[in-house]
Design goal:
Layout lengths: L9 H16 L5 E5 L7 E4 L5 E4 L11 E2 L9 E6 L2 E12 L2 E7 L21 H21 L7 E4 L5 H14 L3 H10 L1 E4 L10 E2 L1 H15 L3 H6 L11 E2 H7 L3 E4 L2 H10 L15 E2 L6 H4 L2 H10 L22 H29 L4 H6 L9 E6 L15 H8 L6 E6 L7 H14 L8 E4 L4 H10 L2 E4 L11 H6 L4 E4 L4 H5 L5 E3 L9 H25 L8 H17 L2 H44 L4 E7 L5 E2 L5 E8 L8 E10 L5 E8 L1 E6 L2 E8 L5 E2 L1 E8 L14 E2 L1
Parallel strand pairs: 1-7, 8-9, 9-12, 12-13, 14-15, 14-17, 15-16, 17-18, 18-19
Antiparallel strand pairs: 2-3, 4-6, 5-6, 6-7, 10-11, 20-22, 21-27, 22-26, 23-24, 23-28, 25-26, 28-29
């Protein structure tokens, strides 16, 4: 939410805050659930050698905008979660975010043992047993809290796999409270659940050993009446194997609506999890995307807000989600646009000097060092920012691959350039810490001193100064390992320009009008070679394009080319990457549909749900008996002329199913020189007649060009209540 409320870490935490604020702006009936961490995330400080040290200051809950939730008797309301051999209790803190209620669960209470009170102490712990305990408090305890305060949801949106156990608790609730079967309860939960994955790499998806799952989730196995193997299969990509229980596969299997957080990330996610739907084409895998956006009122500077009030709309902050208003950015005079950026840069430099001075004083720096901090950086220099988590795939080191060439760029007195870095490495990430230390060492060398500055203890305050004050935002992840990345959006809405690898949001946003791209999205198997190629491209862009564009001034001392790019970047980013557009897409694509599903299925004492699940159980029992008998087409020739209509017939043994229980489709295409089928199209076949258990399906196709065609036929289940029309292991090909 804000730096004064240190209960977050990195992009997902900040995105959650923006999502909640936007839901308030849009009057959505959203309730948010999280954990209250007694130590929040760590404070960072660097020792004399530049090595990151961590400090975990305790959060004083009574100085935060929180109040305890009480029950009817005036005591703190507690939820209980069964753990092996005991129950763990959690109290809840309430925070009002505009019109949205945020509840944070807290296990640090006297009803728990000393060890159990530590469960909600710290974010991102490494111990797997502690992680599963945290995720049970979040998922199971969160749903039980909503039940107790009479806010039981019609839709649950799980962000990342950490909240996966919310689905288990909802399934258990419908089985025990309403007498539903496991199939009925799980289908109801699935139809009303949205899951957003935020990581593009397998290692970022949490897994647990079978022994931990059995130890902690045995009550849920008993309630669902599933065997250990059946239960573990819910969290596996491949059924009946020795795979660990994966939180992301479980979320995918228990959610009707799944998405990544950018167009590229959606594609990467479909590839990453395609084995769950191994019978489908990649673009059919039901993982969509909704590209992230930023809460503009949170991240906009006062300077640009005033410009928008004057030249865009006096009530612009109430109309962020109206793309057409941002076309009025062109009305802002060039000199006012430029001066606003200059003031923001001066503010950033003053903030950076203060941060460095305070750091030196903590480390007992010399008097000369402390005095020199007051002259750090220059408002006349092209200022480039790089701030994010220091994971190695984000490649903060890319700028330093050729130190001599970088030194040459920084040595110019007529075209001065400076870099500001900030960011934390995960406490267990030795390689990330080494990157930070290397930057600190380089920044102390002649030729780099006062041109490269590292700001300690990156938080939301530092982020706000950076995204508002830099001229250029540098982003160099190893494609396609950045899911989205919203910091570049925050820079763009404050007049900064992005220079980035085409990854995450920048892959779909980039045009020559709004910024610069490093490469064209090439992906190399040899990452060392990729670093070499892309670092060279980075230097070339800086030397030949970015720096000249900034310093080439007209008679009025304004960089016309630069300001023109600013305008395009501002109007496009504000229109396309604001969080009202993002939350609006969740509402239209997922929330409304999931809520409607839920209400339909529970109506009339769950009658539609019971009918649908009766059909589903029957279908699954008969599925292995469904077989292709024959497939034929007119005259049985392989070559057809353009515009010649071709009739196809499929004979399928449907066993005890009805023809209406199935959807039969033909896929037809031509072949390229490598043998790959191209220009493929699909056509649904219609039921024609039946003979015993054999059903006849037909269709006609008119090819647009002549030649040899290749085709195959597919069977899927079909039912009006199926929210996800393709389910794992319910696909057959001829």
């Amino acid at each position: 939410m804000h730096e004064s409320f240190p209960n977050y870490s990195g992009g997902l935490g900040v995105l959650a805050g923006d999502h909640i604020k936007t839901a308030s702006d849009m009057n959505l009936p959203l309730v948010a659930i999280g954990l209250l961490y007694r130590f929040g995330y760590f404070s960072q400080y660097l020792n004399d050698d530049g090595w990151q040290q961590e400090n975990y200051p305790m959060v004083d809950t009574f100085s935060l905008p929180l109040e305890l939730v009480f029950d009817g008797s005036g005591s703190p309301l507690l939820v209980e979660v069964e753990m092996p051999g005991r129950k763990i209790f959690a109290q809840s803190w309430h925070c009002i975010v505009g019109k949205v209620d945020l509840y944070l669960l807290d296990a640090n209470i006297s009803q728990n043992s000393f060890e159990d009170r530590k469960i909600t102490n710290q974010l991102y712990v490494g111990d797997k047993e502690l992680r599963i305990q945290q995720e049970m408090i979040l998922g199971v305890g969160g749903i039980r809290l909503l039940e107790k305060i009479d806010k039981y949801p019609t839709v649950v949106h799980m962000n990342e796999g950490h909240s996966a156990f919310s689905s288990l608790e909802r399934i258990r609730y419908y089985i025990t409270a309403h007498g539903l079967s496991f199939v009925e309860a799980s289908e109801l939960v699935k139809s009303s659940t949205v899951f957003t994955t935020h990581t593009p790499i397998p290692a970022g998806n949490e897994e647990f050993e079978d022994s931990l799952i059995e130890k902690y989730l045995h009550p849920f196995m008993s309630a669902s009446r599933l065997s250990m193997q059946e239960f573990l299969n819910l969290g596996r990509i491949h059924q009946n194997t020795g795979e660990k229980f994966g939180m992301t596969p479980f979320c995918i299997r228990s959610s009707a609506y799944c998405n990544g957080v950018s167009k590229l990330h959606g594609r990467v996610s479909r590839t990453l999890w395609r084995e769950i739907w191994h019978e489908l084409y990649d673009d059919e895998i039901p993982i969509d995307y909704i590209t992230n956006g930023v809460h503009v009122p949170t991240w906009i500077s006062d300077e640009f807000s005033r410009l928008f009030m004057r030249y865009v709309d006096p009530q612009w902050f109430r109309k962020v989600g109206e793309p057409e208003i941002w076309q009025r950015i062109k009305n802002i005079p060039s000199n006012e646009l430029w001066k606003a950026g200059e003031r923001l840069k001066e503010r950033l430099i003053a903030f950076a000097r203060k941060k460095v001075r305070e750091s030196l004083m903590r480390k007992s720096g010399s008097r000369q060092e402390i005095e020199d901090a007051d002259n750090l950086l220059s408002a006349d220099s092209l200022t480039i920012g790089f701030a994010r988590r220091f994971a190695t795939y984000k490649r903060a080191y890319l700028l330093f691959k050729d130190e001599e060439r970088l030194k040459k760029i920084l040595s110019s007195t007529s075209r001065p350039v400076q870099f500001i870095f900030a960011g934390k490495a995960h406490p267990a990430d030795k390689e990330g810490k080494e990157v930070i230390a290397r930057i600190i060492h380089i920044a102390r060398q002649d030729g780099f001193k006062n041109r490269i500055v590292f700001l300690e203890d990156y938080d939301l305050e530092t982020a706000r100064y950076l995204v508002q004050g830099v001229d250029v935002w540098l982003n160099t992840p190893l494609r396609p390992m950045e899911a989205c990345g919203t910091s570049g959006m925050k820079v763009a809405i404050n007049g900064g320009i992005n220079l980035s690898i085409p990854d995450g949001w920048w892959d779909e946003a980039y045009t020559e009008d709004i910024g610069w791209t490093i490469g064209r999205g090439e992906e190399y198997k040899d990452h060392e070679y990729q670093d070499f190629v892309e670092s060279k491209a980075l230097y070339d862009i800086l030397e030949n394009i970015v720096i000249p564009a900034y310093f080439n001034r007209s008679a009025d001392n304004l960089p016309k080319e630069w300001i023109n790019k600013q305008r395009h970047s501002l109007s496009y980013t504000l229109a396309a990457f604001n969080s009202e557009r993002m939350v609006g897409e969740y509402l239209q694509k997922y929330y409304n549909n999931a809520s409607r599903n839920y209400k339909e299925l529970i109506a009339g004492n769950f009658q539609k749900l019971r009918d649908y699940c009766g059909w589903l159980v029957h279908l699954k029992n008969e599925w292995e008996n469904v077989k292709f008998v024959s497939f034929s087409h007119q005259e049985n020739v392989e070559y057809y002329h353009a515009e010649e209509t071709v009739f196809f017939e499929a004979q399928i043994d449907i066993g005890k199913l009805k023809p209406t229980d199935l959807q039969i489709s033909i896929f037809i295409g031509s072949q390229d020189g490598t043998g790959k089928v191209i220009n493929e199209q699909s056509v649904d076949m219609e039921f024609h007649h039946s003979y015993g258990t054999i059903a006849f399906f037909t269709c006609s196709i008119t090819p647009q060009s002549g030649g040899v065609f290749y085709y195959s036929t597919r069977i899927l289940p079909a039912h009006p209540q199926m929210v996800r029309t393709v389910e794992p292991d319910l696909v057959k090909w001829s």
